[in-house]
């Protein structure tokens, strides 16, 4: 039993009784509209087709996460101890200073989302690694709770045990473990969930706020510009802040450092526990793929180097060497151009999406402009249920699976699909709930 087979089983079930399931689809839309599965107060787009993973898939996700986290921790340790290695990242002076600080607990990467193209157990490619700012937990879990009670899933429950992986309370539990290392004398820290006021993820922040409050932690959603540091403690209004759940991405923290000097100084003085630490930028910046291929031979084992070769796309700086420039021009379908440190697929260009003439202009614009060039990896294609004019039919979608990693262990899933080559909200996408399926004995 594999996930491709179960996905086809679900599609066959729905397309067999399209009228019955269309009515249930409309009910599902209403349930989502009345839920917190929103971004900027708009209900997230989704299809009436969950991802259905087996326990073998889950074991694969756990194994690949463990291997990659081991590799990334070796890279982080090398960064901390080798000035020459640090130079290869080219980070801002302030960022390097903040990365080198001891953040007060033992985990380098408390939060991450590893985006992958997944074809089946053992066959996958990493697309990118997200650390600070990782999002989507609430949207995914809310959809999963809704889909557990849809008609086709209820019918499949006769044959399978079907569950989902919880992402809100589990993060709160893991973050409080880290805080206990930072300050074992405070069992109920005051928590600030920190991002810009216009970030758009307020429903997700509110879900985390409620979960922290259930643990007895006073919790506020805070714009970093409103934090005040008196040289001893960090405050939001009259609340002393003990623990920050940082959703503010590092690139914006550095870019807008003059607006948030109190936050930065409190971090510098270790006056507050920050999850995640600035150290996580080492793996968040897209240059990490280039580093893994070109600069880690002496610190990785043979098995780890083989893992990198099989599963990490080859990546190069898009500057300096004109031979690379010409190769990218000539072989447009083989390459992707990505900015080093933007997110949400901003500024990402796939050669497949352009004519030769258009591609030449894109390449010229990106050359020597803080871009990376990466080998193109074909996303896994799936036939998914979609409704048009009340009729159930199958559409072909590219799939990208996100693996949520809490305290360096696989915890849950976030799936986006789309018909365009770039899968993001800028290019047209849908979110799918993720369910775990086990055959009943």
**What is the oligomer described by this structure?**
single chain
- Range of strand content: 25-35%
Provide the number of structural domains: 1
Number of contiguous helices: 16
Rounded to the nearest angstrom, the distance between the terminal CA atoms is 14 Å
Mean pLDDT: 94
* CATH classification class: Alpha Beta
Number of strands: 22
CATH architecture: 3-Layer(aba) Sandwich
Q: Specify Rg, calculated over alpha carbons.
A: 22 Å
Main sheet summary? 6 strands, antiparallel
* Structural class by SSE content: alpha+beta
Write a brief caption for the model.
The protein has 441 residues and is α+β, with helices and mostly antiparallel strands. It has helices spanning 3-16, 18-33, 55-81, 83-87, 93-100, 137-147, 151-156, 168-182, 202-214, 250-255, 261-268, 281-284, 287-294, 302-311, 322-330, 356-366; strands at residues 38-39, 42-43, 51-54, 111-120, 123-130, 160-163, 191-194, 219-222, 227-229, 234-236, 239-241, 243-246, 273-275, 315-317, 335-339, 349-350, 371-375, 380-388, 391-406, 409-418, 430-432, 434-439.
Task: Characterise the protein shown here.
The protein is α+β, with helices and mostly antiparallel strands. It has a single domain (3-284, 380-439), classed as Glutathione synthase, substrate-binding domain superfamily, eukaryotic (Rossmann fold, 3-Layer(aba) Sandwich), CATH 3.40.50. 39% of the residues lie in helices and 26% in strands. The protein contains 16 helices and 22 strands. The chain has helices spanning 3-16, 18-33, 55-81, 83-87, 93-100, 137-147, 151-156, 168-182, 202-214, 250-255, 261-268, 281-284, 287-294, 302-311, 322-330, 356-366, and strands at 38-39, 42-43, 51-54, 111-120, 123-130, 160-163, 191-194, 219-222, 227-229, 234-236, 239-241, 243-246, 273-275, 315-317, 335-339, 349-350, 371-375, 380-388, 391-406, 409-418, 430-432, 434-439. Strands 4, 5, 18, 19, 20 and 21 form a 6-stranded antiparallel sheet that branches. Helix 15 runs antiparallel to helix 16 (356-366). The chain is globular and about 65 Å long. The two termini are 14 Å apart. 43% of the residues are buried. The model has no long low-confidence stretch (mean pLDDT 94).
